[in-house]
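Input chain follows. Return structure tokens only.
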Amino acid sequence: MCADASERSSNGSNMYVTVTTPDTAMVQKAWDILKDGGEIYMGLAPSFFARLHGSLRDQFGINWMFTASQ
């Protein structure tokens, strides 16, 4: 899956590990673990296309995007 971003990217910061699943509890648990020591780009919240959606960078510099599908 690909995703675009409105901000300018640099080498190493232009990829996201994307997790899409109907398992809302798994998304919330993974989010809670990975946000510690990281930076939240888009808070995990309901959206028009998913029960939950959000993105962050973890403490190791890995970008993540989570979607709990409908």
